[in-house]
Amino acid sequence: MIAENAVLHPLNLFDVSGKIAIVTGASGAFGALAARILAGAGARLALVAGNRKALAETEAACREDGVDVLPINRRPSTEIECDAIVSDTIAHFGRIDILVVASGKNDVAKITEMAPERFLDVMDANVTQSWLIARAVGRRMLEQGDGGKVVFMSSARGLLGHPAGYSAYCASKAAVDGMTRALGCEWGPTGITVNAIAPTVFRSPLTAWMFEDTEKAQDVRKGFLARVPKGRLGEPGDLAGPLLFLASRASDFYTGHTLYADGGYTAG
């Protein structure tokens, strides 16, 4: 329950310092960014990723903020792995306050050229593994009995289609949005909130070429930005506000929502 003096001290609502956060996909663009944002805000982190080298890089970057960091070189790919992630976190920190699910993948191909195995692989990475880690962490949060924050990483593609072979990715992110709504309802009475952030194109190692001055990048940007009211692509800092909102007490009355960090892309 938010205290009555919250109106007089509103910034306290966004304080996550000392909170224990698990971030999956911590070696990827959004996972690493989420980890840096939470570390900068003073949260203590269990960083989960299968890529050991990239995980170490994210760990080192977060330690620069002086917070306690536990690297966990696992993927949330099975029930056993997810239970181990929770056990490792509890052994080190004693509890879990926040879960950010940023693990996942894309595989671009026209549906007529995509093998069913490739489709199922995307669904497993983006949907099944999100469900598994939410299930494992949710059990612990329910045992703790004092609520918690679950934040999924969705995409504007969960709402919008794409002409360039995104049938698997769009379907998977639409499923993440549905899971967000369902768990928001299921866990609403418990104090656990479940929400999702849905970005559009953000600057990252994967999209860096789109920000360049090349003719190809300019052509792609021109077509894309014609549908973005803000008139630019996303920058890493654009995710800081939404993430801190959904990971903190400020969002205690918000659950089951997908928050579009897209410069208005899905509004038009």
Brief descriptors of the model:
268 residues; 2 domains; Rossmann fold; 7-stranded parallel sheet; 7 helices; alpha/beta; 7 strands
Describe this structure in a few short sentences.
With 268 residues, the protein is of the alpha/beta class. It contains seven helices and seven strands.
Share of helical residues: 40-55%
SS strand fraction: 5-15%
Looking at the overall shape, the CATH architecture of the largest domain is: 3-Layer(aba) Sandwich
Overall pLDDT, averaged?
A: 94
Q: Report the biggest beta sheet as strand number plus sense, adding barrel if it closes.
A: 7 strands, parallel
N/C terminus separation: 36 Å
Give a topology summary.
Blueprint lengths: L19 E5 L4 H12 L3 E5 L3 H12 L5 E4 L6 H15 L4 E4 L14 H29 L3 E6 L13 H21 L4 E8 L15 H11 L14 H8 L10 E4 L7
Parallel strand pairs: 1-2, 1-4, 2-3, 4-5, 5-6, 6-7
Helix pairs in contact: 1-2, 3-4, 4-5
Describe the structure.
The longest helix has 29 residues, at 116-144. This protein folds into two domains: 4-199 and 235-261, NAD(P)-binding Rossmann-like Domain (Rossmann fold, 3-Layer(aba) Sandwich), CATH 3.40.50; 203-233, no CATH class. The protein has helices at 29-40, 52-63, 79-93, 116-144, 167-187, 215-225, 240-247, and strands at 20-24, 44-48, 69-72, 98-101, 148-153, 192-199, 258-261. The chain has a seven-stranded parallel beta sheet, with helices on both faces. It has 268 residues and is an alpha/beta fold.
